[in-house]
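All the exercises in this workshop are built on plain-text protein records. The record below serves as our worked example for the rest of this section.
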Amino acid sequence: MMWEESRDNFESKEFAGVLKRYKQMLTEQRTEFFDVADFEFIADQYIDKSQFTNALQACEIALRQHPNSIIVKIKKAQIYLSQLKLQKAVHLLKHLEELEPTNPDVMMMLGTCHNLKGEHHRANKYFRKAEQNAFEDRDELLYNIGISFIQTGSYEEALSYLRKALDENPDHEPVLYDIAFCFEKVGDDARAIEYYNKYLDIDPFSESAWYNLGIIYNRLEEYAKAIDAYDFALAIDANYSAAIFNKANALSAIDRFKDSIATYHDYLVIDPDSVDAHLYLADCYFQLDDYENAQVYYDKTITMEPNCADGWFGAGLVMLICDKPKKAVPLLIRSLEINPDCAECWNALGKAYAALENFEEAKSAYLKALELDNEIAEYWLSYADLMFNNNLFDDAVNILEDAENSEAACAAILYRLAGFYIFMDNFESAKEKLEAALSEDYPSHVDFLENFPNSLLIDWVTELISKYSYLGGESAPF
């Protein structure tokens, strides 16, 4: 801020020993004279460390020695503002406004007080006065008005002042950073990236800027760029835990599960009690079919956080995949007690009941999954398979016909319908569905043949597959 002008001289010999002398005076409970610049320096030293009570004490002592000092009174108002003691700040600032009605610092702080109180009309009135009366350090004043709007979440208004500040001083690093931050908040990722890069051109060793870039790239699903940005942040600060965690997430997003696992382990060295890190580690092991380690970390997750629905769900899936449906059921039920709206978990519970030949329970679970989300083909297929495997063939077909007319419609449903119709000797419908499936997704015919191997004995089936083979990258038959 403009009142921080004197900080340019903090390293000068003029202030050498000032703080030490001041502290010694307090310890010995005596009075010693300091000039206004000394007190300003002393207060700023405490403000920089957020020791506002000590800073305020320095101002009180200063005003006893310099009762008419506008500089000290402004500093005192600044401290009240930093402490969010808005009523005290406004009271003092209104007094200062009477003394110096054109002081831009006073106008700016009054605007900030009203902004924080939600009185935006009054705030803007004072901000305009501050801008009109600022002839020196205009960039700093405009920047601080922008920060005031950031504090209240008014990012568009913040941008208008920050851009003015940048016009005044194109090399103002904090302005570049906060412009990028505001663009990020308003959802303009391209401009946010542009300004973070401008900032990094000036200060390439800002780990927070690299980290923020990584967050944006991650959101844009440009995971390789996100990982590079996190790596730059970590090159500057190897213990930047948020960068480690988000790098692990990005690695997982591009199926680099082994690298992700190693990075999550790095994160756990810093934050060994992280429930999310344990859960995501388990998920990575699960994706690698390392069910033993997946189970270990799912168990750790639910031990640390018994109400973690995803932890119970993951543990249940491991049991289901390892052909232990009886053990899977209570785990999946516990997950649904915590999060009853998880369609995927209901579908898994249906599979577990189906494996245990509990038809009614399986049917109920599948119907619940579809009630929650009828746009997932797997849920329709699971339900239809239950009916088919229990000799309810017409029901199985009707379910998939409904699915074909829903948002879940896809080649997998057509292939399964074709298989059901073949089994029921309805070859006309089977041909129609199989041809439609092959034209939409030829490579998936492999799954069709695996599910219905006897169809290879039917000439028209092999002829249709041969007809559409060129869609799978092979030569078209003649």
Observations:
- Residues 1-13, 473-478 have pLDDT under 50 and may be disordered.
- DSSP finds 27 helices and no strands in the chain.
- The longest helix spans residues 52-65.
- The two ends are 80 Å apart (CA to CA).
